[in-house]
Amino acid sequence: MKILLDSVILIDHFNGITAATAYLRQTRGDAVISVVTRAQVMTGFDEAAREETMLLDSYQLLEISKPIAALAAHLRREHRWKLPDAFQAALARHHDLCLATRNTRDFPPETHGFATVPYTI
C-alpha cells in the first residue's frame, strides 16, 4: 500500500529527528505527499531553502479535487477535524493510502484504519 506522508513526518526529518529520516528512506518508493503537506512544510522554509524544496519535489503530489473536497467536508463535520487534517484523511481514503502521521489525537490508528504511526519521539 502506498503511503501519504503527513506534514509532521517531513517536519520531523527537517528538524533532525533520525526516526523520521529513517522512515523516509524506508518508504522512498511508496510515499506521496499532498498539496496540504507541501504548503505546511514550506511555511517553515525561507526563500533559500533549495535542498528542502528539492526533497518535496521528489514526491508525487496529490491535489484536491471536487470529490476530495466533498469528502473532506463530510469528515470534518463527522470528526470535528481542522480542515488540513480533514483534507489529509480525505486524500488518504480517496486514493486508498495509508496516512503516516504522529497525530494520534486526531488519527488514532485503532479508530482510523487508514492511519499509521511509524515512530514515536
What does this structure look like?
This protein is an alpha/beta fold and 121 residues long. The protein has one domain (3-116): 5'-nuclease (Rossmann fold, 3-Layer(aba) Sandwich), CATH 3.40.50.1010. The protein is 49% helix and 12% strand. It has helices at residues 7-14, 18-26, 35-42, 50-57, 66-79, 83-94, and strands at residues 3-5, 31-34, 60-62, 98-100, 115-116. It has a five-stranded parallel beta sheet. Helix 1 crosses helix 2 (18-26) and helix 1 (7-14) packs parallel to helix 3. It is globular. The protein starts with a strand and ends in a 5-residue tail after the last strand.
Observed structural traits:
single chain; 121 residues; Rossmann fold; five-stranded parallel β-sheet; 6 helices
